[in-house]
Design brief:
Strand content: 25-35%
Distance between the termini: 35 Å
Structural class: alpha+beta
Oligomer: single chain
Low-confidence stretches: none
Order of helices and strands: HEEHEH
Helix content: 40-55%
Strand order of the largest sheet: 1-2-3
Largest sheet: 3 strands, antiparallel
Shape: globular
Mean pLDDT: 83
Number of helices: 3
Number of strands: 3
Length: 107
């Protein structure tokens, strides 16, 4: 998910779409992103949430995969791309943990 470009090429909407779609393809999932205005430290802030749901239709695979989610506060970042990148990194970490847990031999 890293980039050799330090700044946006000017079409942030397209970049964000490509970033999410690449994540979906790599992880065989669908991504849902939401934002709500909420109070934090006595001021309004945006709480961003991301959820990954498997596109797998096999019942056993769905149970093993489970869904994953992450959240962050918008005021902690200066750009929407930073918010989305943070959410995807956190989500990727959760998915990796689940994958490693499934790969461990049962006792």
């Amino acid at each position: 998910m890293g980039s050799s470009h330090a700044l946006s090429n000017g079409n942030e909407g397209q970049e964000l779409t490509e970033l999410v779609r690449a994540f979906e393809l790599m992880n065989s999932c669908s991504i849902a992103i939401s934002a709500v205005v909420s109070m934090r430290n006595k001021s309004q802030d945006m709480l961003w949430t991301i959820v990954a749901v498997p596109v797998e239709t096999d019942e056993q695979a769905l149970t093993a995969w489970d869904c994953a989610s992450a959240a962050c506060w918008g005021s902690e970042y200066k750009a929407l791309k930073a918010v989305l990148s943070t959410l995807l990194y956190r989500l990727d970490f959760q998915l990796a943990e689940k994958e490693f847990a499934r790969a461990l031999p049962s006792s």
